[in-house]
Fold these 2 entries.
Entry 1:
Amino acid sequence: MEVDKESVSTSINKWIKLNVGGILFMTSRETLLKDPNSMLARLIDGDSELISDKDENGAYMIDRDGKYFPPILNFLRHGKLILDSGLAAEGVLEEAEFYNITHLITLVKEHIQRRDQQTSVIDNK
Amino acid sequence: MEVDKESVSTSINKWIKLNVGGILFMTSRETLLKDPNSMLARLIDGDSELISDKDENGAYMIDRDGKYFPPILNFLRHGKLILDSGLAAEGVLEEAEFYNITHLITLVKEHIQRRDQQTSVIDNK
Amino acid sequence: MEVDKESVSTSINKWIKLNVGGILFMTSRETLLKDPNSMLARLIDGDSELISDKDENGAYMIDRDGKYFPPILNFLRHGKLILDSGLAAEGVLEEAEFYNITHLITLVKEHIQRRDQQTSVIDNK
Amino acid sequence: MEVDKESVSTSINKWIKLNVGGILFMTSRETLLKDPNSMLARLIDGDSELISDKDENGAYMIDRDGKYFPPILNFLRHGKLILDSGLAAEGVLEEAEFYNITHLITLVKEHIQRRDQQTSVIDNK
Amino acid sequence: MEVDKESVSTSINKWIKLNVGGILFMTSRETLLKDPNSMLARLIDGDSELISDKDENGAYMIDRDGKYFPPILNFLRHGKLILDSGLAAEGVLEEAEFYNITHLITLVKEHIQRRDQQTSVIDNK
C-alpha cells in the first residue's frame, strides 16, 4: 500500500460507481481494470464501441441483475470464486460470460460440475 | 455491440426505471421490448389501455412484489430461467403470469414439476 | 385492464406508500381495500379510531416488521399464500393476525400444520 | 385501538427512528418502552448515563448489527421469538444481551438448546 | 456505560461512516480501534501510508464486498464469530485477511475446518 504523489493527485478518479440493474456498487478503477479483456475494463476505458451511459449519480449503467454481481467484482478484487449457498451458480456463470471474464467462467463451470457430481452420488445411494 | 449514430442520439431514452412495489429496478427499453406480448412491453410502449403512472423519480409504478421480479427481468435479458434456492418458484410463476410472458410461464411450470417429482421420490424412500 | 375517464383523473390517489418498520412499500389503494375488514383497508379509509401518521415522504407508518409484509401484500394482490423457504411462517402468521386478514390466517395455519406433520414423519424414520 | 385526544396531540413524538449500524428502523415509543429495564427504553427516556447521539435524519445511533435487530424489535412488539432459518440464533442472543431484554435472552437460549439437541440426535444416528 | 465530560464533548467524532463497496455502515471510532493492528484502525487513525478517500456523505470508502463485512464489524464489537448459514465462510476469511484481524482469521479457519470434517463424515456414511 505504498502511495506516491501521482496516485494521491489522481485519487478523485480512483473510485468508480456502477449501477447494475438499479443496485449501486462502488469500486476502484484498479479493480475494474484487472482483466483487460473484460467488458468492465472496456467500459471505464471509454471503449468507443461500448455506450457508457451514466445515471444521475454518475454511476455507469449496466443492464444486468445486481444480485449476481458481487461474485464477479470479488473475483476481480481477490482472484477467488466465493459463492453463498443461496445464490444460483448458473446466475453467476451467466454474468461471468456477459462480462467476458475468462478465468472466472472456468471456475464457475468447475464449481457447477463438482456440485452436480455430488448431487448425483446422493441420488444414487 | 455495434453502435450506430441513431442509437447514440437516442441513448437518453434507452434506460427505463421501474418501481416494483417500492423496489427500484433499472433496465433498457430493448430488454422490456423483448417479448412484445408482455405487459412490460405494452407498459413502455404507451399502450392506451394500460395506465402508466410514474413515481417522483420517473419510474413506472407496478403494483407487484419486487422480490420476485429479478427472474422475470433476467429472462428478458438472457432467455434463461435462473432461480435462487430460497425463492419460491410459485411466486415467480405468479409474476410470469401477471406480466404475461408465455415462454417463461412454461419454463417455471416445468421447473416446479421437476422439483415436485424429486421431492416425491425422497418421500417414498 | 379497461380504463374509464374517472379512474384516469383519480390516478394521483391510486398509489399508496407504506412505511412498515422503516421499509418502504408501494401499492395501490385497490389492493389495500381488497379485504374491507383488514386493518390496512381501515387505515387508508381514514377510520376515525386508527391514527394514520405519515412519514416525511407521505407514507403511512406501521409499527411492524417489513420483512414479513410481502406475503401479506401479495395475498391481497393475487389471493395466494407464497412463502419463501428462509422466512418463518410463524412471523407471517403474526402479521396476518395483526392486519386481521381472516382468509390468510387460515392459509398460514394450514401451511404450518402441513409443515409440522412432514417434519414429524422425518423425525420418526 | 381506542384513541383519546391526548395521544393524538402527542402523535408527533410517537414515532422513533433508530439507526442500527447503518440500517434504519422505525418504531413507536410505546414499543421501545415495553421492557423498562432494556437499554432501548433507557435510550429514548433520556437516561443521563447513556449518550444518545442522533444521525442527520434524527435517528438514534446504535453501534450494533442491524441484521440481528428485527427479532429484538418484534419481541417488543408482540412478545414472541420469531427466527428466520438463515439467521444465526447466536447473533440474536448477543443482541438480546446487549439490549438487556431478560425474557428474550431466556427464549433464545431455550431455542439454541432445543436446536443443539436435535442436531446431536441426527449426528448419533 | 459511565460517561465523563470529555467523551461527551467529543461525541461528534465518535461515529464513523464506512462505504464498503457501495453499502453504508455506521459504527463507533472505539469499535474500529479495537484491534490496533487492523487496517480499519489504521484507516481512521490517518495512517500516512493508507489513502483515506471519503464519499460525498463523508464515509470512508473501502473497495471490498459489504456483504461479508458484518461478521468483521461484529467481531470488533463483541469479540465473537457469528456466521449466518447462507454466507460463505471463505468470503469472511478473505475479508478477515484483508483487514488483517489476526484473532478473527484464526476463528474463521477453525470454523471452516470443523465444517469440512462434519461434511466429510456425512460423505463417508
Note: The interface with chain E takes residues 86 of chain C (CB under 8 Å).
Entry 2:
Amino acid sequence: MPKVVFTYFDTKGWGEQCRLLLTYGGQEFEDRRMTHDKWPELKPKTPFGQLPMIEIDGKQYAQSLAIARYLGRKYGLVGDTLEDALEIDQNVDLLMDLILKGAQIYRESDEARKETLYAEAIKNVFPGYLEKLNSIIEKNNGHIALGKLTWGDFVIAGAFGSLKMVVPMPDIEQKYPAFQKVIDNVYSIPSIKAYSESKK
Amino acid sequence: MPKVVFTYFDTKGWGEQCRLLLTYGGQEFEDRRMTHDKWPELKPKTPFGQLPMIEIDGKQYAQSLAIARYLGRKYGLVGDTLEDALEIDQNVDLLMDLILKGAQIYRESDEARKETLYAEAIKNVFPGYLEKLNSIIEKNNGHIALGKLTWGDFVIAGAFGSLKMVVPMPDIEQKYPAFQKVIDNVYSIPSIKAYSESKK
C-alpha cells in the first residue's frame, strides 16, 4: 500500500470527496488538517499554492477533481469503458459549472451587488442546472452517472455542503431531492458510515 | 471506426482541442459548425444545452474537457500510469483555473468595472498562474506534462487564442514563451499541420 498524506483545511470544502474516496478504497492515509495561520508557510511548498494536496509515496499532486478522478480509477469507480468514464466526467463538469457560477457570486465583496447577482441567478441561472442534475440523478437511480456508484457520487457527497453555501436557495433540498439520494447512497457504505461517525 | 459528429460554433473557442484530437487519432468526423441563428433550435436537443457536443455512434456527450480527456485516452495520449493521467489532469485544471478567472472578468458587462478588475488581475492574479504554467512547460520540454505529447498539449494548442482573449496582457507571448512551444509541437504533427492548412 502506498504511503498517502492528504492535506486540506479542517473543513469538508473541496477536500472531503478525496477523504471519502481514500476511505472507500481502504487506503490508510494521514488526514493532515491545515490551519489558516500555518498555511502561508506551507503554500509555497505545494505544487500550485493550492489545497487540497495529496502526497503519494512522497510525490505531491494538486487539484481536487483531478485527485478524485484518479482515486476513482484506482478503486474501480469509473465504469467499464472509456465512454463510461466520459459520462461521469461530463456530468461532474456540469455540477462544477453550477458550483463555479455560484462561487463567483459568493466571492463578490460588494454586498449590494452580490444580492442583485444572487437574485438574478436564483431566478434565471441556478434552476436550469439544478433541474438538469436532479433529472440526471433520477435517471441514474440515485447516482450521478452509469446508474451505479462512481467517483462522481463522492464529489456530490463531499461537496454538497459547499454547493448549498454558494448556491443559496433555501428550498434547494425540497425542490431537487435527488442530490440527497446520492449522499445517502454514499454515506450508507459501511466504511464511509464508520468514517463519518468517527468525525462527529 | 465509430461514426463521429462533432458540433461546435464556427470558431476555435472550446471546440478546437477536440477537432485537433480527432484529427490526430485519424478519426473521420463530421465537423458540424453551428450558426448562432440555428443554435436556439438545436440547444434543447443537446445533453446540457451547451456546445461543444460529440456524437459517437449516435450517443451524445457534452463538456469540452471531458471530451478531450476521453479522446486523449482513446489515442494513447495519457501516459502509462494512473499517476501520469493525474499529472496531466492537474496541470490542465491549473490552466482552466486561469482561463476561468479571465473569463469571469471578460463577461463583466459594466465596462468601468471590467477595466478595474482586469487591471487588478493583470497585476496580482494572472502572472502567478502564467509563471507557474510557463515553468511547468519548460520543465516538460515544451509539453504540459510528462515531458511528452499528451492530450493536455492539444488543449493549449486549441484554446490559447481564447486564453489570450480573456487574459488580455499584450506581452503575454513574450513574457511566457513556453506556451508557443506547446503550440508549435502540436502543429508540427503532420496530420495536424495538414488539417490546419486545410482550414486556412
Note: The mean pLDDT of chain A is 96.
